[in-house]
Design a protein that fits this description.
This protein is mainly α. The protein is built from seven helices and three strands; from the N terminus they run ααβββααααα.
Length: 225
């Protein structure tokens, strides 16, 4: 089997594995009720209010399962229905994680500012990166190929910056859950495990992106030979 095919399969397997781990942990911990049975929406509100972020709204997300996110432009914490309305370990952990992003934004966390500066270039790269790659590979025009590689590199750099932001939000979540008495010490391990499963999807996505760039370079090298 060609080495570039092996890399392609490895990238697919890694992303699939990360999603499987996330779904497995979510399925497990959404069935485990937290001791104090505080709903995800109330968890978010408690933490936000205790940090003086009364203007940040907590809203149900319009997406599906685990479509949770913080919108810094609208200053809203958006939680999927299961997270919003339930009081499971998964609900309180994910809700606190998204509030962690709101805390980062309020404190001017440096990597948030860097990621926001990178966002316009990242959006362009996501639209045109693969197009440039395909044009370069099939037409033999090196300029298009290397432009595509640069654009994919921008996407990868964005993922590199995003990774510590996600880990930091998870760390903040555990601290807030314990300091505000939302979970007991006996629930820290399961809450942290849920958040680590979610964070692994970002790790897998980053590694997959790096593998894809290496694969493309190998394909180009083989064609030139």
């Amino acid at each position: 089997m060609p080495s570039e095919t092996i890399l392609y399969l490895l990238a697919i397997i890694l992303v699939f594995l990360s999603q499987t781990i996330l779904q497995s942990n979510y399925s497990k911990y959404r069935k485990v009720q937290s001791v104090h049975q505080i709903r995800g929406c109330d968890v978010a509100r408690i933490i936000l209010d205790r940090h003086g972020l009364h203007d940040v709204q907590v809203l149900p997300s319009k997406g599906g399962v685990l479509s949770d996110y913080y919108d810094p432009t609208k200053r809203t914490v958006n939680l999927s229905n299961d997270i919003f309305y339930n009081s499971s370990i998964a609900s309180v952990a994910v809700a606190a994680h998204e509030v962690g992003h709101a805390l980062q934004h309020a404190e001017g966390y440096s990597l948030i500012a860097l990621r926001n500066k990178m966002l316009p270039a990242t959006q362009i790269a996501s639209q045109f990166g693969w197009i440039a790659i395909f044009i370069g590979l099939f037409s033999g025009l090196d300029s298009f190929f290397w432009l595509g590689i640069i654009l994919l590199g921008i996407l990868t750099a964005f993922q590199v910056v995003t990774l510590p932001i996600e880990f930091n939000a998870s760390s903040r979540a555990i601290v807030q859950l314990t300091e505000n008495g939302i979970i007991e010490e006996s629930e820290v391990f399961s809450s942290r495990k849920m958040l680590r499963a979610a964070a692994f999807t970002y790790v897998a996505s980053l590694i997959s992106s790096i593998i894809q760039v290496l694969r493309l370079l190998m394909i180009r090298g083989n064609r030139r030979n």
